[in-house]
Every structure is written in structure tokens, then in C-alpha cells.
Amino acid sequence: MSFQVEHKMSGDSVSIPLREGHRRSDEKAPYFAEERPGWKGYIEWENYPDKQKEAQEILAKYDFAKPPEYQLEPLPKTNPILEGVRWKQYHAALGPTLRDLPKISWEYVQKEKSPDMIHVLDFPYNGEPPKDRVIEHAITPNPLFFVRNHGGIPKINADDWTLNISGLVREPKRLTLADLKDESKFSRVSNIVSLQCSGTRRIEQIHEYPGDGDELINAPWGEGAIGTARWSGVSLKKVIKYCGGLKDGAGHLEFFGADTYFKKGKVYNYVVSIPWRKVKVHEAILAWEMNGEPLPRIHGYPVRVVVFGYIGARSVKWVYKINAIENPSMAPVQSKEYLYYTPQIGKQNATYSGGFSIQDMPVSSAIMNPIDQQQIIHDGTIKLKGWAYSGGGHWPVRVEVSGDGGSIWYEVDHKKMSDKYFYAWRLWEIDLPVDAEGWLEFCVRCWDNALNTQPTYVRSAWNWDLHVTSSCHRIKIYSINRSRRATAERLKFLEEKGMSITPITQPFPFDLETEEHYLEEVAIRGGRDPVE
Amino acid sequence: MSFQVEHKMSGDSVSIPLREGHRRSDEKAPYFAEERPGWKGYIEWENYPDKQKEAQEILAKYDFAKPPEYQLEPLPKTNPILEGVRWKQYHAALGPTLRDLPKISWEYVQKEKSPDMIHVLDFPYNGEPPKDRVIEHAITPNPLFFVRNHGGIPKINADDWTLNISGLVREPKRLTLADLKDESKFSRVSNIVSLQCSGTRRIEQIHEYPGDGDELINAPWGEGAIGTARWSGVSLKKVIKYCGGLKDGAGHLEFFGADTYFKKGKVYNYVVSIPWRKVKVHEAILAWEMNGEPLPRIHGYPVRVVVFGYIGARSVKWVYKINAIENPSMAPVQSKEYLYYTPQIGKQNATYSGGFSIQDMPVSSAIMNPIDQQQIIHDGTIKLKGWAYSGGGHWPVRVEVSGDGGSIWYEVDHKKMSDKYFYAWRLWEIDLPVDAEGWLEFCVRCWDNALNTQPTYVRSAWNWDLHVTSSCHRIKIYSINRSRRATAERLKFLEEKGMSITPITQPFPFDLETEEHYLEEVAIRGGRDPVE
Description:
Oligomer: homodimer
Structural class of chain A: alpha+beta
Helix content of chain A: 10-25%
Number of strands of chain A: 27
Cofactor (chains A, B): Mo-molybdopterin
CATH superfamily of the largest domain in chain A: Oxidoreductase, molybdopterin-binding domain
CATH architecture of the largest domain in chain A: Alpha-Beta Complex
Organism (chains A, B): Coniosporium apollinis
Protein name (chains A, B): Sulfite oxidase
Keywords (chains A, B): Metal-binding, Molybdenum, Oxidoreductase
Strand content of chain A: 25-35%
């Protein structure tokens, strides 16, 4: 797929029609103040139900743009692929503190991300690198790391940043970054960890069967919503211990992000939770470094959570509060989203309780080179490259590739796999023997250390919310095998004429054989029809 | 699929850039005269190699538009879907006799065809009715009969029409329409016969795997390139007998159509052939009536060939000459097109002799209602309708439908199938029990009287020239079963709110359950996580 770069500057001149019965002159201009000095773009909602209610009333006055139809119709060939008009309007409706966030967020994209990123959604910003570049490095450089944001990017001065630890902890505290960095209080940890959005490869589910539109934020990801970095910070367990440990009954930690989140006409901060048992085994850290550098703004500066082996959505950016609670968070992102349904559940019968909550990521993989529909001239071997990952405390042990849609599998040589980590992907490559010509279906599957492997087809695991496309990744390749005589001859003929065989859909201006050859060959076949 | 009606008038202001080294002032205006009085748009090429050569030289001077990329890219949502710029340019390049044919042909479309036709290709005109209307009548009304033309539509006065019978016949003759209609010479025959383009359902092959662009004329047909009519005329066998029968060695009859055909820079009349053994059993007629009316211009007025059970391409329109020959015709449409390849054959190795020539049409079928991606609210039963056909002297005996992608099959009640004919399709309908919800794959297969049935998947029979998509026809349906409690409740709730459940991709503005219901249900499930 190729994309035109054609970006309308975010946040410019967003206009929103009022609903009937509302007049603009009736309104007092909404004003939701910044919460703290040194924090730009952060409104505290969770502590102020009245403010949430006021925002809800303001939002109810507008006729926001309808989510675009991008599942039953082909996706636009633009970059950004989707714009997020509705989300820009939400921010504009709530006045000056949020109005400029689409513009500011876009500036961070330009400053911090590689210029060749595929902008899956302009705002809230969601972007992934081009396929080739996803697997350029076993440790993803920061500018190439995918971004999956749920709101605007707040700008927080590191010196002004604090973290509240509250709820069912014995000694609630407010910590500064200096506190966290104080190695007399907390030993430093550093881990290589992959983060993966559960929407990775969603486009495959959309192409087969459309699902929940979810106001657009269910972005049509390709295979690039995964990346691996060395994250440095402190173990969250140590921080909780520093607060005297948990009170009886506490089973989960709730993380609060400074970004503003909209859902069905209401407004929130970004809030999710993970179970304490995950923290207890040091699989959750508070990180301020990504690959040896301070976190980029777009990735959560100054401090974010990184939860190992879990869906990326739990690794909250711009975290400002941690709340110990009894049960999983009732915040909408935790209770109403990132749910996995059986294929008979959909708009007609879905309930949040009927899906299970996606925390651990399952075993998955993807072919990143070649790409779908590529037409490849080769000599009997095609090189395939990709990634393989398993979350939930597992790691990829074996990768297998098939050139015939999943009948015969070839194992990737272990020497052609990148290093093993408990919490990270492995890159792989293989020179696959390919004799056949024409359209072939290549696919990949990974086996993890618990002997889990992937569902066979997209339809084996399609689900209404379009999460976790972990079925064998399949691409169609048009194989042109130069080691076959007829093909070699035609390629030579084309070379002499200075012509290309691709794209295969463009017809040749010359005949495919001489009349003499045709008659000879048909005669050898006994003519077109039998004689008697 | 929906289409915008947006038609640029054919034949207006076609301009063609000259190749380098050619100047417009160098040229004498090409002029290829009409061949006969009372015939407009007919140039005789086959008798005049010099004229063919001159046309070839003229065509070589131009840089014609490249065929559009419509296989590796999504099809335009316009009607006509494709325009045929290159073919309009070919006609314009050869001067006044052909220049206006795109415009004239389009006038016949407007006059003779139903206004709701889907114009698959503007010029040469190729069109099919909307899916529902394909199966509105067991005998297709003339305005709804699909059209698959290979060139412009010649206008021939019936009184000026003649047919030359030549080649390996004992007494070559020139016959008029009055001769054919003289029942003292030829008994009248009338048969109900389906004609099917071998490109029917080609779009399914294109969607899975692109193939031969073939300068565009390989139009992206849906399921509507099939129709059934009562054709009346005379048996071709009687006409050949009237010419004294065939000489020794004659095995095939070559049909010449008055339309001009372009192929790889050369120019021809439309010429194909069928074997004598097909004629001998009265399976080829010369017809001047279609459903009791004179042939429409667009369907071959005044006289066309109708070959029973064969690919439509052999039923030559505007036939002006029949030539008895020893072997199948070497004309390009017969020897270089309508070939069926094995999936490993493609642009890199295809030869004409390596494909087999499509004459008999195999058993095939299609679901015409509902349509792909439809979202259907039902009470446990969904009505499916469609057509089933088998060529080659066979007829549909049984139709089976599956609601689960081809695991469980339901037989269509024979009382729900239209009448049986030796040479025609049967329409069918079935009330299929559907319990499941969400995305389901419906498919159909037909069994003919020789126990032939259809390949399972498109990929089972994909072929480079994209002909004969006869695999089980599959559509994806989103099932919303109102006889299930949860679904009924949600539909009632939506009805009370005056809201629609479709399109399913548009999110609801309200929560899917109350917080109380959520907590209750999660508790019944033992919480999100185990307790110990």
C-alpha cells in the first residue's frame, strides 16, 4: 500500500454545529482550567464529578461529525489515513485548555517521530512505521516506535511532575521524579520489553469482517503497532512497598494518565488497572528512560508505566496517580474497552461483561517483507523477514513459515532469530524454497515456550471489538521463478525489449507466441478437440 | 456496492498523443470506407490484408492511454465502472467510419437497455443488471439481458443484410434474411437458451488475485453476465445442408461479426469458431428473434448466432459470414483469448497453446439476494435467491446452500426451482434456517445431471485470464437473529429510541449495559481473574 502525504494541520479552524434548541449566544464560554503549574493540556476530571458533569452538558449541545465509514468502504489512501475530526471537535468544544491539543500533539509527531511514519489516525495520534522499518532493529529506535494515544499529548515539566500513590496503600504518598531517581530509596531497573497494541493487524479483521466502529479510535492498524525498547526506571513493587505496602483487600492498581479521554459524551482522564500479582513479580515498572534517553513527550514524558507482557493500553503514559483498589478499575478503558468477544457477539447483543478483558498478549507474528500482493522475481528462493512475539510471560521459541498457505511449514533457523528475552519479540528471517509460480499464499506462525501457537485464519478468531489479530499472518505473493526455463526466456525477451514484467496486470503489446509455435504445440496436444 | 451515475458522453473529444517522430501534419487523414450500403460502422478487414496493414501502421503512430489499474487498486465507484479510453482512442484513430461508434453505441444502450444497468465498461459496451433484477424473471426481458460487446455496435438494415456461407462447403451461397425466413427452405426453430459470459463473477478472482489486464476488455463482471431468452431462427445445420453440406476435412465453422476488433495494435473483425459436431446436433442457430421480438441492435440485429451451452463469445452478433474450415479458427478471439490456464501460468510463462479453449460452460451458480456484507435482521430464517446453470449439454438438477461456509448443506426444494430446460439456467430460492449471529459465510453449489459440481474456493480454480469463476459463490452476511432474547431486547430498545442497528460499524451513543448489570455479571463469572 502506498500513501500520499497530505496533512491538514491539526486543530485549525474546527467548527461544530450546535444541536437544535441551542444557540451559541446562550453559552458562557466553557473554561476548564489547567490543573497544575508546569503542566499544559492536563485537566483533572476524576477528582471533580461536577466538572465532568459540566463538560458532559456542553458536549450534549453539539452535533459532532459522524465517525467516518472506513470498514464497509476502502480506507482512504492518504497519510494520515484517518483524521479524527470528531475528536478534534470534542477538544475544541471544551475551550482553550484543550482546543490546541491536536495542533500541539501534531507538533510532537513532527519533532519526535520518524518522518516516514504511517499516521493511522491524525488525532488522537496513532502511528506505525513502514513495514520494512518495523523490523530494521531488534531494539526499536525511539523515532520508529509505534504510537497509540487516546487523547492529546500533555506537556509536563519534569521538575513539576508528581505522582500520587493513594487508595488501599498503608501510607499514601506524593512522589517527585527526584524521589524515584533516588537510588537510596529505589534500586534502578532496566528491561528490554516489547509493547504491543492489541489492535495490531486489525486491518486484517476489518478486511474480512467489519466490526465495532468505536467512534474511530479503533484505528486500522497494520503489523507495525509493536516495538521493543530498553525501559529504565524503578519497579512499581518497590514504590508500593515504600508506601507501606497494600492494605488488606487491595488486589489491583489503577493508573491515571494526564490525557483527557472522551467516551459516549462523557469526559475522563485515561485510567486503567492491572492486578497486584503482576506488580508483585516485578513485571510493572515506572520508567523515565526509553533506550537510554528521557522518554519522548509522545511516549509519556516524564514518567510512564511499562507493564511487561500485557497489552500496551495498560502501560499508562503521563501517569500522575496510582490508586490501590479491590477489583479491576471501573474506568471505561478498563471495563468497557479492550474486551475480547466470541464471533457471535456483536452490536446486536454485546455487553461489556460478556467479553473478557485483554491483559496478557498471546503469541503472534507477522511477515514484514515481502508485502501483500508483491510480485517477486526470484531464483527458487524468496527471503522472508518478520517479527514474532508472545506476551503473558512467554517468549518465542520457534517460528515457522509456509509458502503454500499452511500445509508445509519450514522452521526458521535459530541462528536467524534475534536474541531471546523474557518480555520481548524476536526478529527472524528465512530463505524459503519456492518452486511454484503465480499467486502463492505465504504465512507464518510462532510457537512460544508454553507451546502456544496461533489460530489458523482471521475468521478463526474474529471478534466484534477487532482486537488481537493473532491468527497466522498471511500474504499473497506473485511468484516469478527465473530458474524455470519458460520464465527465464520471457524475462530475457523482456530485458532485450527494455520492458518490465510488473505490474503483472499491464498487458504485453506483443503476442505470447508465434503462430508456428502455437500450431506445433496444439498439434502435440492432439489438437484442441479429440479426432473421434 | 452502490454506484454513482456519472457518465461522460462517449466519443466526445477523444484526443490521442502521437508517438515521438510522428507529426500530425505528415499524415494523410485515414479513411476506411463503410463496406456496404445500409451498413453503418462496418469495415471489412478480414478480406483486405492491405487495409489491415495500413490500420496497423496508423495505430503504431499513437501513444494510446495505458489500461487503467483496476485490479491491484479498488474499482472506481462510478457507473460506468470503467470507461475504455484506449478503445475509444483506437476508434478515433482510424477516422470517420469508426470515430462515432462509441457515441452511437452509447445511444443504443440508452435506447435498448434498462436504465438501471450497471455499466461495467462504457466502451466497448459491457453491462449487467443489478443483482436483484438478474433473477427477476426466469426468462430475462430483453432490456435486462447482459451485454458483452467487443467493439462498437454496427447499424445494419435488415433488408440490406446478407450472410456469406463459404470455405469448405460444397455450394457457397449468399443468403438474405428473407431466405432464412422462407419456411419452405428452413423450418423455424425456437429454444430457451441461457447465454453466459465466461467472465461472469470475474470480480471474485480479481479481489483474491489480480490477473491478465488484457487491455481492459476483461471487464470486472459480477454475477449478472448471464441471461436466458427464447431465441428464434433456423438451425445452422439446415443452412449448411442448404449449401450442399460440408466438404471432406471440414471440422469447424468460423463466424464473422461486423464489429471491428482491436488486439495488440492490429485490427480485425470479430471472428470465432465452433466445431461442426456442435452444429450437427442442432445446438447452434441463426436467430433474428429474442423473446418474440426482433433482436435489439445491441444484441446483434438483424441476425446473430446462438450456440447452446457454450461460452457467450461464440454466439456472434451481426454475423455476416460463415466459413467452413478444417481446424479451430486462428482468429485472435478464438486462438488467443478465452483460454483457461492452470494457476502456475501467468504473465511470466503464458502461451496461447498452454491454455485450453473455453467452449462448453461448466456448472455454476450464484446467490443474488441477499448481497455480500448485508446486515440482516431475521427471526431464525433468511431467504436466499439465485441462479444455477450448467452448459455443455447439462442442466441443473440440484442446488444446495450452506450458512456456515460449506460444512452443512441444505437442498433447495425442487418446487422452489424454476422450470428445467436442456440449455437454460434455473432460478431458485430457499428459506435457510439461520440460528447463529454475527458474520456468517453463505455459499451455494449446483449439481448438474452429470453429477458435476463446483470447485470449493476461488483459489481452487483461479486462472491467469480470470475466466470461468465457477467456484461455490460465497457471500458474507451479518446475521442479527431477533428470535434470540438479548438481540430482541436490544432491537426493542433501539426502536424505542428511534435508532437503527445498521450500519453495524456506527457506534451507539449509549452504554451497552448498566454498571449494576456489569458488576452482577462479572461476579457471576467469578470476577475478571481467579481469586487464588
